[in-house]
Design goal:
With 465 residues, this protein is mainly alpha-helical. The protein has helices at residues 3-18, 46-50, 72-83, 142-151, 162-167, 169-177, 197-215, 232-240, 265-276, 293-308, 316-319, and strands at residues 129-131, 133-137, 157-160, 181-184, 222-223, 245-246, 284-285, 312-314. It has a domain at 3-89 and 118-319: Glycoside hydrolase/deacetylase (TIM Barrel, Alpha-Beta Barrel), CATH 3.20.20. The strands form three sheets. Strands 7-1-8 form a three-stranded parallel beta sheet. A three-stranded parallel beta sheet has the order 2-3-4.
Length: 465
């Protein structure tokens, strides 16, 4: 990497470190659903300057990735963070413990295992809301969960493990194609505070890389450290280098221990019922897993109670009206295009003879579904007499998809039995266009080959690379 590019990396990291992110519950305000629309990168986005898509060889399954095999861009970016003093000098843990004299509960260390909350961590949902999220997928048990979520039109956040994505690519694609939110849960699910700085980069970086590669370039905005093990050193790397926001939880039924025989499905459901029947302030973020048939069943069986008790169930990003991905653009679906203008009326017939046919209607205008849906079809030629009315506008496409064609124009009226000409009456349906609500969050995800360069829409379309 040239010195100019490295300088650019440092500048970009500084910008990312200064980028405001949601903090704990009291710092958040719910602002609507925040559904993801089309995403793209601007042509001058920093990641496109640094990283070009290439064939990716992923680390092997079953171990923390070898930091020496990381892309050089990651290594240099980490070195820049360390040189800038942006990463606290906190010792690694061994078997969950810091060296003697190091207090993991102190504000200087702030290990979230001890429920120490970092200033940008998410622990609670807004009042009355319940964050639906699952860890450790995708697994062979996941498809039934995804089918259920889709049947309920319920969006959820899946904190995926990189090696699980590598092992279950089709299942991963089902979650993504269902429109669920994808989050990062590291490559091999280690205790993050036990790792070196380089190992932390490798764990997060390769997970972001495979998610990006599998989806055509999305970059998750949220991550959850395995077992909640994170401290200020881990946070500094996750946020400063990858732009990630840490998501924790405020209720834990220990559903994953069903695989150890320590709890039953009924026991999980009983605990969830206790949370759901409790106070609505703060809102709930329940730690749940998609790793066993029983954990999937426990959520499916508990979901009706969540709804009957009036909980507003949302994905993590939607709890706060935030973009799910760091390279996303939020778009409000547009209305249909205007109908085609009616054809001009035909010439009145002489002495009761039929009038001439009306002229063809004009094409309808395009819808405004983010990047323009297709307009209405041209109105049909009017019959003798006045021109047909314009066709109704097509329904706007969702999130930038083409709108449906408009309806054909109405037939013209019959000519009068006089020598007078019928007037060329036309009716035009006014186009109703919703201005797209746009949010664009650039983030410094320094992966070689992370993102392609999708192009901005031209002539009412988006081309994605």
């Amino acid at each position: 990497m040239s010195s100019s590019i490295l300088t650019f990396s440092v500048i970009f990291l500084t910008v990312i470190a200064a980028h405001p992110t949601p903090g704990a519950h009291e710092d958040h305000v719910a602002r609507g659903s925040g559904l993801l629309g089309r995403w793209y990168h601007e042509a001058d986005h920093p990641s496109l300057q640094l990283f070009k898509r290439q064939a990716t060889t992923y680390p092997p399954v079953g171990a923390t990735p070898d930091p020496t095999q990381m892309p050089q861009a990651w290594i240099q970016a980490l070195a820049a963070l360390e040189a800038a003093g942006s990463i606290p000098n906190i010792p690694q843990t061994v078997n969950g413990s810091y060296p003697s004299g190091v207090d993991g509960t102190s504000s200087a260390i702030c290990n979230s295992v001890f429920e120490c909350k970092g200033p940008t961590d998410i622990w609670n949902a807004p009042d009355g809301m319940l964050g639906v999220s699952f860890d450790d997928g995708p697994t062979p048990f996941s498809p039934r969960l995804y089918d259920f979520l889709k049947s309920q039109n319920q969006k959820a956040t899946h904190f995926f493990i990189g090696t699980a994505i590598k092992n279950n690519p089709t299942v991963f694609s089902q979650a993504y194609n269902n429109g669920d939110e994808i989050g990062c849960h590291t490559w091999s699910h280690p205790a993050m505070t036990s790792l070196t700085n380089s190992q932390i980069v490798a764990e997060i970086g390769w997970t972001q890389q495979i998610i990006s590669d599998m989806t055509g370039g999305i970059v998750p905005r949220f991550w959850r450290p395995p077992t909640g093990d994170s401290d200020n050193r881990v946070r500094a790397i996750a946020s400063g280098m990858f732009g990630l926001i840490q998501v924790d939880w405020n209720q834990d039924p220990d559903d994953w221990t069903v695989g150890l025989g320590k709890i039953t499905q009924a026991g999980i459901e009983q605990l969830i019922a206790g949370y759901v029947n409790g106070p609505k302030s703060p809102g709930l973020i329940i730690l749940e897993h998609e790793t066993y048939n029983e954990t999937v069943n426990a959520f499916i069986d508990s979901y009706p109670l969540m709804k009957s008790k009036g909980w507003d169930t949302r994905s993590i990003g939607n709890l706060f009206g935030e973009s799910w991905y760091q390279n996303s653009i939020l778009v409000t679906p547009g209305q249909g295009g205007a109908g085609g203008q009616g054809g001009a009326g035909g010439q009145g017939g002489q002495n009761g003879q039929p009038g001439q046919p009306g002229q063809p209607g004009q094409p309808g205008s395009s819808g405004s579904s983010g990047n323009g849906g297709s307009g209405g079809q041209a109105g049909q030629p009017g019959q003798p007499g006045q021109g047909g009315a314009g066709g109704a506008g097509g329904q706007g496409g969702q999130n930038g998809q083409p709108g449906q064609p408009g309806q054909p124009g109405q037939a013209g009226t019959a000519g009068t039995a006089t020598a007078e000409s019928a007037s060329a009456a036309t009716t035009v349906t006014t186009a109703k266009k919703s201005a797209g609500q746009v949010r664009y969050d650039a983030a410094g995800l320094l992966f070689k080959g992370l993102l392609a360069a999708p192009f901005i829409a031209l002539a009412h379309m988006i081309t994605l690379v």
